[in-house]
Amino acid sequence: MSSQPQISADSVIDLVEGLARAGRVAQRVLARMPAPAKEQALRLAAAALRRAEPEILAANARDVASAETNGLSGALLDRLRLDSGRLAAMVEAVEQVAGLPDPVGEVIDSATRPNGMVLQRVRVPIGLIGIIYESRPNVTADAAALCVRSGNAVLLRGGSEAVHSNRAIHQALVAGLTEAGVPADAVQLLPTQDRAAVGAMLTAAGLIDMIVPRGGKSLVARVQADARVPVLAHLDGINHTYVDHAADPARAAAIVFNAKLRRTGVCGSMETLLIDATYPDPHGLIAPLLDAGCELRGDARARAIDPRIGPAGANDWDTEYLDAILAVAVVDGLEEALGHIARHSSGHTDAIVTEDQAAADRFLSEVDSAIVMHNASSQFADGGEFGLGAEIGIATGRLHARGPVALEGLTTYKWLVRGSGQIRP
Questions:
Q1: Greatest alpha-carbon span in the chain
Q2: 102, 178, 211, 278: which could join 35 in a potential S-S bond, CB 3.0 to 4.6 Å?
Q3: Packed helices 53-69 and 84-99: angle between N→C axes, nearest 10 degrees
Q4: Closest Cα partner for 203 from 398, 403, 9?
Q5: What is the CATH number of the domain that holds 218?
């Protein structure tokens, strides 16, 4: 991380307010751009990212080296690190967003009143979105693409550990966007890592219309506690997979292994495995994980499956490990599994593996999480995998947007009323 001169708190507030005002001006221009122009702008931005691969990877290598020196955790290092494959996926995500239908102007519903007035609800941009994130340089590209496509300006504040990566990605994006006529101020990256800038964003009511935090529990907690701007929160991924007694053993073993170990540092990673007490092959679920180096912590019945399983503490059922660590419990059927999930799930993603359709239907109906799955790995909890092109987070609340937040989640609506001279009696 590069050293920066300290600036006063008042100067940070002035900086954020100035960027926000410029972003709002740019957003009004962006909101008037037709869908084909926004699509072309994003395709040019993707091409600019592709051309800038050497500079982006060099900047990322600098960030990774600094993070390793500073002792960043393995999970955060995994989220930080870019290579040619991950950069190509980033570019592809921008291109996918470019090709999605434009949500702006979509008529959600309409009705004609008895007096002849015609009412419509129409999707419109939210305005200026502030995004505060840690470690993930891909958020810079994903957020910019989604905001531009949905007619929103964006003010980005990335983490210090990814500062050089974010700047290189941002520079390439803006070069492509401006080539197509998008104002440069429509996608801004805070030029300072001063922590006071976060506070300035959180209190910029009337300038920033919504804040989206992407990061650890402490960041999200601070944002929710201090914000004077509406927040769309992405909370912990304490995700469960329940293997029912009627699960196919081969299918269950493959799903469980993938859900935990495909990438342990992503928010869709399984953190707790629940096994029905009458499931015929529990060792077939456990042994591959242990053999691959995953640490398992279980209750008494789980530990009886394999002596390599250590004891689980009370906190293990409420921990997002983001590492090769897994909590395991044996439960007496679907009812007990549902109760465990209701007590410990963070509302992100929970899954059942079963060939019993009635059990699957009950699980899908009763588990109150943003994403509920049947016979699929929780690692699919991702906007790209859902056909959304990209996401700026998975919202675990119940208001405005839930699950992967993409184009639709970055819009609101307004009512259009068309009359022919009606007056109210």
A1: 80
A2: 102
A3: 120
A4: 9
A5: 3.40.605.10
57/195 same-domain check: yes
pLDDT in tens, 55-70: 999 999 999 999 999 9
**Residue 160: count of CB within 10 angstroms of its CB:** 18
- Do the beta carbons of residue 173 and residue 390 sit within 8 Å? no
Compute the C-alpha angle 25/51/265, nearest 5°: 80
Residue 151, Ramachandran bin (φ over 0: left; ψ between -120 and 50: alpha; else beta): left
In a domain? residue 271: yes
What is the DSSP-derived secondary structure letter of residue 407? T
Secondary structure of residue 388 in the 3-state scheme: coil
CB 337 within 8 Å of CB 275: no
Distance separating alpha carbons of residues 295 and 302, to the nearest angstrom:
13
Q: Is residue 396 part of a domain?
A: no
Range of the domain at 218: 9-234+405-417
As a whole number of angstroms, the distance between CA 266 and CA 322 comes to: 7
Residues 204 and 103 placed together within one structural domain of the fold: yes
Q: Are residues 17 and 166 in the same domain?
A: yes
Instruction: Give yes or no: residues 72 and 202 share one domain.
Output: yes
pLDDT computed for residue 401 by the predictor: 86
Asked whether the CA dihedral 250, 253, 333, 277 is positive or negative, the reply is: positive
Query: Cα(223)–Cα(217) distance, rounded to whole angstroms?
Result: 10
Bridge-based pairing state of the strands 187-189 and 153-157: parallel
Tens of pLDDT, residue by residue over 233-254, are 777 899 999 999 999 999 999 9
Confidence band (pLDDT; 50, 70, 90) for 416?
very high
Q: Return the HEC string of 235-282.
A: CCCCEEEEECCCCCHHHHHHHHHHHHHCCCCCCCCEEEEEEECCCCCH
Residues linked to residue 156 through DSSP beta bridges, in sequence order: 131, 189
Q: What distance in Å separates the CA atoms of residue 116 and residue 315, rounded to the nearest whole number?
A: 61
The answer as to whether 249 is a domain residue is yes
Q: Confirm if 186 and 162 have CB atoms less than 8 A apart.
A: no
